[in-house]
Amino acid sequence: MQTPFLLQFINLLAALLLLIAFAMLTQRRILSLINLFALQGAVLSLSTFVVAFSTSQHHLYYSAGLTLLLKVLLLPWLLHRLIRKLNVRWDVETLINIPTTMLVGISLVIFSFNLAAPIAQLSEGLTRGLIGIALASVLLSLLMMLTRRKAVSQVVAFLSLENGLFFAATSATQGMPLVVELGIALDVLVATFIFGIFFFQIRETFDSLDIAHMEKLKDD
Amino acid sequence: MEKYQLLFAVLFQLAQLVLVVVFAPLLTGWVNQCQAWLQNRSGAGVLQPYRVLRKLFSKDAVIAHNASPLFRVTPYIVFGCMWLAAAIIPIIAVDLPFSMAADVIALVGVFAVARVFISLAAMDIGTAFGSMGARREMLVSFLAEPALLMVFFTASMISHSTQLPVIVDTLAHHQFVLYPSLAFAALAFLMVLLAENARIPVDNPSTHLELTMIHEAMILEYSARHLALIEWASSLKLFAYITIGIALFLPHGIAEVGNWAGLPLAIVALLLKLVLAGAALAVFEIVSAKLRIFRAPEFLATAFLLAVLGLLIHFLLGA
């Protein structure tokens, strides 16, 4: 009876992941956005740990630890430091209003659940039902990148998109090889650093982190 | 034995009928007291709602000249609806003969009847505050109602029934299962509870500030015994919502059908849950700020969204 209970627990964590993705989508404040991102990382790490325990795959323990270190501690700390330095604590401006965004989000969830249903039939893992949730959280992060105007929240959306991909990998295919995972982790870390430098550049050029100003750059 | 079973069940139902109406103000008093403690005030004590009721019942009612009979009967209708709702929710044991009178969908209907009457009565006198309050109440509740229905649907899908006793029995006495869909439903339900009971993020029950009040604006014209009945009905409504929450999301410890030996334990469990739920509600209200009225639709849209997500998750994961 032990494995089904663990499966239920993973299902619960997956649902939490989706919930956090929605919370990020509807969040107005940048500080809470980063805290939610850290929470998402924590849930992801816990679920990876539980998958590792229930399928006894030892390399997943490493990726759980890596997730904890990188996405719960290091990246949120970096982002916090960044917004303190940039002095951006304003409310996030969204392009479409939040109830509309939520409705679009719901239809994305329905779409991805339907899309994932046939894929889940092909997989043989215990956790195959979760592909739909992983896909939904990836699409929700994508939606968040589209609807946000400020660069910082777009970066948070990008990082949370990576979280969704990572969850899809652990739930559908029992995780990627450790080398690939390390590579992705490094990529994300470097990307955050580069984004940080970009933020300063953007602000220096336009006096604002609003992406809309970048439209001036094109040739007429 | 069968005969006695039914007799006991009816007696038990009558006992619950009396107990909820007597103890509902106590819960309101407890929530207020917790809030007072959290705000570093000494508070008026958990018995304050009873004192208010006694004071109001001993006064003479004043009614506006142009009040129609609707205005006079509304407090009784509202009180009756809330009493019925609170009485048919399985809180201690699952065999309640009267609960067959209304399943969860009808329960939502019972709340709606009370709401329609209190809004009509608020508009009846023709004061600006009354109609403003009524319109705002309708704005909030027409968004809260579908969310509440969705929460009930999620629980009904799990237990394949819309009867509350069956739902509670399935959740409490069958094999323990973690339901991710219910986690979503619980969150949505909490938001609906706050909105429907005029609690802080949507409405502030302790203020009479003109521009922000919703529920208080509707009952401004009531006095004495009418006001007492409405206050009492509000307590019953809060009690009903909290016990619905307990029944759907924390039903463990409730007595099974025919298991009378389990009753004392069930009562202790219920008391414990009510005390905790009241304190949690107070904490939640303290840490959140009141929303602008135009943010209320967004708050309730979120509740609806969470409930729909719970339903979708139930379809995807089958749990």
Give the SSE map.
The complex is a heterodimer of chains A (about 220) and B (about 325).
Chain A: H1 2-26, H2 30-55, H3 58-86, H4 98-122, H5 131-147, H6 151-173, H7 178-206
Chain B: H1 2-38, H2 48-57, H3 69-87, H4 104-124, H5 128-159, H6 164-173, H7 180-196, H8 215-218, H9 224-249, H10 263-287, H11 296-317
Helix pairs in contact in B: 1-3, 1-9, 1-10, 2-9, 3-4, 3-9, 4-5, 5-6, 5-7, 5-11, 7-9, 7-11
Can you describe what's shown?
The complex is a heterodimer of chains A (220) and B (319). Chain A has helices spanning 2-26, 30-55, 58-86, 98-122, 131-147, 151-173, 178-206. Chain A is mostly helical. Chain A has one domain (2-217). In chain A, helix 2 (30-55) runs parallel beside helix 6 and helix 4 runs antiparallel to helix 5 (131-147). The model of chain A has no long low-confidence stretch (mean pLDDT 81). By secondary structure, chain B is an all-alpha fold. Chain B has one domain. In chain B, 70% of the residues lie in helices and 0% in strands. Chain B contains eleven helices and no strands. In chain B, helix 1 packs parallel to helix 10 (263-287), helix 4 (104-124) packs antiparallel against helix 5 (128-159) and helix 5 crosses helix 6 (164-173). The mean pLDDT of chain B is 85. The interface between A and B is medium-sized, with 24 and 22 residues.
What is the radius of gyration of chain A? 18 Å
The figure for the number of domains of chain A is 1
Helical percentage of chain A: over 70%
Q: Main beta sheet of chain B, described?
A: none
Please compute the radius of gyration of chain B using only Cα atoms: 20 Å
Average pLDDT figure of chain A? 81
Overall pLDDT metric of chain B: 85
N→C terminal distance of chain B:
38 Å
Low-confidence stretches of chain B: none
**Helix segment tally of chain A:** 7
Low-confidence stretches of chain A: none
Structural class of chain A: mainly alpha
Number of strands of chain B: 0
Which of globular, elongated, flat, extended, rod-shaped describes the shape of chain A? globular
Specify the number of helices of chain B. Answer: 11
